[in-house]
Amino acid sequence: MKYFHLIWAALFRSRTRTFLTLFSVMTAFFLFGMLDSVRVAFNSGGSVTGANRMIASSRLSLTQMLPYSLDPQIRAIPGVKKSSYAAWFGGIYKDPKNFFPNFSVGPGYLDVYPEFILPADQRKAWEADRTGAIVGETLAKRHGWKVGDVIPLQATIFPTKGSNDWSFKLDGIFKVKDEKQKAGQESVLLFHWNYFDEANDYVKGRVGWYILQLDDASHADRVSKAVDALSANSDHETKTQTEQAFNQAFIKQIGDIGLIVTAIMGAVFFTLLLLTGNTMAQAVRERIPELAVLKTIGFSNRSVLMLVLGESVLLVAIGAVLGLALAPLAMIATTKGSGGFIQLPSSLPPESWVTGLLLMLAFGVLAGLLPALRAMRLNIVDALAGR
Amino acid sequence: MSKSKRFFSGLLTIVALVAALVVWSMLPWFGVLAIAVAVAAWLAFTRSGAIALAATRIGIAGLPQRWGASSVIVIGIAGVVGVLVAMLAMGEGFKATLSNTGGTDTAIILRGGSQAETNSVITRDQVPLISGLPGIARGADGQPVSSPELSQVVNLQSKADGTDTNVQFRGVGPAAWALRPKLKIVEGRKFGPGLREMVVGRGAQKQFANLDVGKQVKLANQVWTVVGAFESGDSNESELWADVDVLGPAYQRQAFQSVTVKLDGKNGFKQLSAGLAADPRLKLDAMTTHDYYAKQSEGLTKFLSVLGIVIGSIMAVGAIFGALNSMYAAVAGRSREIATMRALGFRGVPVVTAVMLETMLLALVGGIIGALIAWVVFNGHTVSTLGNNFSQVVFQFRVSPQLLWTGLKWALGIGLVGGLFPALRAARLPVTEALRAG
């Protein structure tokens, strides 16, 4: 890029205009970064570590529970390495606004979720404590809990001895390695299913869903058929799918997020394109005599075209990178501000960076194309004469 | 002007602008009308107003020549207003659907502490006790009007992409029809008692596959026949209804989840609550159905409006930069013209007014276009989302006149910010320099 200084100088010829354009490009990509990372978060579902994990839940409906008697049968299916189960509890901590997922889990739950890292001594303490619970670090921080605290939960579904008051001793705090999953997965409270089964008044011997870990992800299809065959034509038919498919099906129901996001981004980018195109057109119009001089001293048509295009791409690129870099700040603020109700990733996923950078190139070229062509076709004599 | 003086006048302008925006955002429609009338009167009846009007005319006459830059303002603002109105319309529609559901003359009884029907359990032996409570209206047959209900979440395929969605399958007692007078069968007939038949809401029928009247659906390993469709204009329209005495056994449920009762007169609810509290066998909560459904819409409505305003604000900032850019360029492009006017004796105020009015006009056009697009595209657009009962609530976007008004106010607010600084620059343009320059 031997003409870089020329492009750079041209870019800041009119400071006000360049900065204003830069800011609006920045806001557009800022918004794009936020929306796209939400979209990616919604579409990615399970983590990579969960690729060989499957969930078996009731085919009838999400709220239907499954008999505990399926457990040994599922374990016996070839291809299933480990399995565990869990049941939704739905307790409330002090106020419904403090919502966080809480469920009881069977033994070996932490083995099928190796991404939950719990110190060995805390794990031992929890396994020995029938009424104990563990929580994710994010959740513990939010409520200022320490190991040893007693956490009261108000049951919304399952009373114990006619009362809604449950309480759990906090035995451990786990972390999740993956930054992308951290916000969501570290906001849960887990306690023992055995205790839940014994202490609740309504359901006995029932679990919400089974989690299966496979030897090999390629066995998913066969295992899913085998599990579903166990309960075929019974009153508790199951539906077994990969964790990713399970999460996606659930998330999809919240609404057609993809469509809304695309619509918003369309509106934003259309505006952006128009704006940048207009700025470039102005810049070229103002500089017609200068460009003519460049041509006079021997710049080829092609070089002039590239100079103007380069300027427009550079303008969009600076704005885009700044906007994309700032987006995570807003995402972190949103997660904090909503008190954990909305969980956004705390950094921009690589997919969003790639899409953003490709869009940046495309818009830079599109916005600069007309003015650049105009610059290329300048007739030196007419331009110098100001005609 | 010295540097510090310029800095302070700039600061003062920004403070005044922020204050003006705050006042503007809270102004009711008659306040806006009053301002518009005052400005129009000033333009029409005072000398400085007449001069300002003349200056504005010159600016507006030049608009077609600068259509590129002007359309940036119009389209930018149209985008902001369109997105904002659409997002708010979604929240509004959801709220309207749920707050339309239920009324103050019926009450829903749930297990104490449960937030929604899904979480509630009412045992069979409690139902006659509830029917015996005071405050419940009696029907023509002398029996208390109460419907013990069960709402089962079932999987159905969505029409849009064939994915499994959670739908509410409600088992109702015979009094259910009397308790929901808004609900009308519009096709087919009601289900027969004791039969595996169901009626489906129009909303559910539009959103989920295979619910046409006459079709058979397999739920809970049993075949159910759709015998009718109903309309109610509320969240019941997202549901499937069947006889509770058929639905319960199909899903091995011995207990009910809720009991809906008709309240007897004004004091009915008070009597009912007192009666519930007095009976130690009933650890139950009663709420009017209106309150129950209103409470269910709270979270999502708030979420959608916060999201709409956040996205709208970010876009508005972008649009303000765009408007500033275009208007600065317009002022720069017309600097000779403006300098000539100033040399002829046009003072600061008319020049500022001219640029401001021009920007506001463009903003207004953008706002109207954006609001219209949102209205045409989204008003009545049917979507569904997961409600509090883990099941889909079908609702429509609702672009109310109130929202269109909010959109226009945003448009004019953006115009105000985007026009002010270029207008001030125009007024401060050094006359001699501008005349000499190119």
UniProtKB/TrEMBL annotation, chain A:
Its main location: membrane. It is a multi-pass membrane protein. Keywords: Cell membrane, Membrane, Transmembrane, Transmembrane helix. The keyword Acyltransferase does not apply. The chain crosses the membrane at residues 257-277, 304-333, 353-373. InterPro entries: ABC-4/HrtB_transporter, ABC3_permease_C. Residues 264-380 form the ABC3 transporter permease C-terminal domain. It comes from the Bacteria. It holds the Pfam family FtsX. It is found in: Cell membrane. This is Membrane protein. It comes from Noviluteimonas caseinilytica. The lineage of its organism: Bacteria, Pseudomonadati, Pseudomonadota, Gammaproteobacteria, Lysobacterales.
Automatic annotation (TrEMBL), chain B:
Pfam families: FtsX (PF02687), MacB_PCD (PF12704). The keyword Transferase does not apply. The keyword Cell membrane applies. Residues 310-430 form the ABC3 transporter permease C-terminal domain. It is a multi-pass membrane protein. Keywords: Cell membrane, Membrane, Transmembrane, Transmembrane helix. InterPro entries: ABC3_permease_C, MacB_PCD, Macrolide_Exporter_MacB. It is found in: Cell membrane. The chain crosses the membrane at residues 7-27, 33-55, 67-90, 303-330, 351-378, 403-424. Residues 72-273 form the MacB-like periplasmic core domain. It comes from the Bacteria. This is Membrane protein. It comes from Lysobacter helvus.
